[in-house]
């Protein structure tokens, strides 16, 4: 397979940041783009503008909150699964699977979980358990599988500028990190960490206290690869320039190249 770029990007409102999305797609031209936090109902998804940019898409929206999508350059992704199994009463739009070019790609937006302790953190952990259970069926597939998205988990203290000021945050709790560790233990490869085993590399800088200007970041956007995808991993990185643009999302696109 020739080089094939798969990216994940928490857009933090697709309607208000559509120009930023289109500028990124034009400059970086990923073959697949997984989006999170659309914050738009299905009918409000800007499919016409995305098609004009050369991308097909499937999406799972939700008014004002959540929402995930999979975009494919010059192709229409084939939807495989809408929503994470295990809780028919969960109405949050947080998980979408699609096939593109023989690769199974999932766009996921794991619950934030704050404040913790409390019902939001309980929901985060319950959702994580459902993801672990479902991922166990995907990791064994012979075809390449990529689980891409905003996991709302800082895996280790090496993935944050300073853990002390975040000790009470749901992103750093031992329970959150243990769930991520158990997910990886199924056989998934954390692509960004595999590419940069010893470097501090971030994907998210919040809007407070000049954290972007000071590079006070967190690594919470991850692309996990099963063996079929990991064997083809050529490169991985973060499009930091996107975070520095005007009216930017607090996340930067994170990507891999398979080939």
From TrEMBL:
Cofactor: Mg(2+)
Ranges where the Endonuclease/exonuclease/phosphatase domain occurs: 7-251
Gene3D superfamilies, A to Z: Endonuclease/exonuclease/phosphatase
Keywords assigned by UniProt, alphabetized: Hydrolase, Magnesium, Metal-binding
Pfam families cross-referenced by the UniProt entry: Exo_endo_phos
Family (UniProt): Belongs to the DNA repair enzymes AP/ExoA family.
Entry protein name: Exodeoxyribonuclease III
UniProt organism field: Pigmentiphaga soli
Protein encoded by which gene: xth_1
């Amino acid at each position: 397979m020739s080089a094939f770029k798969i990216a994940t990007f928490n857009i933090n409102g697709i309607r208000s940041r559509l120009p930023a999305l289109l500028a990124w797609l034009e400059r970086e031209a990923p073959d697949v783009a997984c989006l999170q936090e659309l914050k738009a109902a299905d009918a409000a998804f800007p499919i016409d503008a995305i098609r004009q940019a050369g991308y097909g898409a499937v999406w799972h929206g939700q008014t004002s909150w959540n929402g995930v999508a999979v975009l494919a350059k010059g192709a229409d992704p084939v939807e495989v699964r809408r929503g994470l199994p295990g809780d028919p009463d969960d109405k949050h739009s947080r998980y979408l699977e699609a096939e593109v070019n023989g690769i199974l790609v999932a766009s996921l937006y794991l619950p934030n979980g704050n404040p913790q302790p409390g019902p939001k953190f309980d929901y985060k952990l319950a959702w994580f358990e459902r993801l672990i259970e479902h991922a166990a069926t995907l990791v064994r597939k012979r075809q390449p599988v990529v689980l891409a998205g905003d996991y709302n988990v800082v895996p280790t203290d090496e993935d944050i500028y300073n853990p002390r000021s975040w000790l009470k945050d749901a992103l750093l709790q031992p329970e959150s990190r243990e769930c991520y560790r158990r997910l990886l233990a199924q056989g998934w490869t954390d692509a960004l960490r595999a590419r940069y085993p010893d470097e501090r590399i971030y994907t998210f800088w919040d809007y407070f206290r000049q954290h972007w200007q000071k590079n006070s970041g967190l690594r919470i956007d991850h692309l996990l690869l099963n063996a079929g995808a990991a064997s083809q991993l050529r490169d991985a990185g973060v499009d930091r320039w996107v975070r520095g643009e005007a009216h930017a999302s607090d996340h930067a696109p994170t990507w891999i190249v398979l080939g």
